[in-house]
Each structure stands twice: as structure tokens, then as C-alpha cells.
């Protein structure tokens, strides 16, 4: 039984050592391989997507401004009615 526990510990130790051998070099090698697989957008796609984002941001900003202004006005009217 003691031998089985020792064998298990040595196997775990060997597995950890194998993982360490890959280390940073393996990580960067795999990182480079993955970056080569990426399909980067064209300049025109980036410009179009940026335009869409700016338009949507403007529309949402104007909507939130209108809601905030309307609610502020409504709350101020309710307060003025209460103070009589």
C-alpha cells in the first residue's frame, strides 16, 4: 500500500514537471499561432463600424437626455404642487 501512494506521488510530480517545461516559451508560441488565425477587419469595415457606434451612442445619449429632462421637469412640477 505504501508503494502505491509513493507511485501516485511520483506520477503527480512528473506531470507537474511536464507542465512546467512548456512554460512561457510554449505560451508565446501558441499565442503567435492563434494570432495568425485571426481574421482582421479591413480599414473600411473599421470605419463603418466606428460610424455605427458613434451614431448609436448619439441616439442613446439624446434619448437619455430627453428622459432625464422630462423626469426632472415632472418631479419639479410635483414638488411645486405639494408646496402649494
From TrEMBL:
Q: Where in the cell is it found?
A: Cell membrane; Membrane
Highest taxon, organism lineage: Bacteria
Where it mainly occurs, coarsely classed, is membrane
Name any Gene Ontology BP term. protein targeting
Stretch list, region Disordered: 1-23
Query: Briefly, what is this protein's role?
Result: Essential subunit of the Sec protein translocation channel SecYEG. Clamps together the 2 halves of SecY. May contact the channel plug during translocation.
Q: Which family does it belong to?
A: Belongs to the SecE/SEC61-gamma family.
Protein name (database record):
Protein translocase subunit SecE
Source species:
Ruminococcus albus
Question: Which gene carries the instructions for this protein?
Answer: secE
Amino acid at each position: 500500500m505504501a508503494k502505491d501512494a509513493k507511485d501516485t506521488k511520483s506520477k503527480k510530480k512528473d506531470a507537474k514537471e511536464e507542465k512546467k517545461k512548456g512554460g512561457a516559451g510554449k505560451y508565446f508560441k501558441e499565442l503567435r499561432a492563434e494570432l495568425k488565425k485571426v481574421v482582421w477587419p479591413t480599414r473600411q469595415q473599421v470605419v463603418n463600424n466606428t460610424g455605427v457606434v458613434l451614431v448609436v451612442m448619439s441616439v442613446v445619449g439624446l434619448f437619455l437626455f430627453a428622459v432625464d429632462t422630462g423626469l426632472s421637469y415632472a418631479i419639479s412640477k410635483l414638488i411645486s404642487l405639494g408646496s402649494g
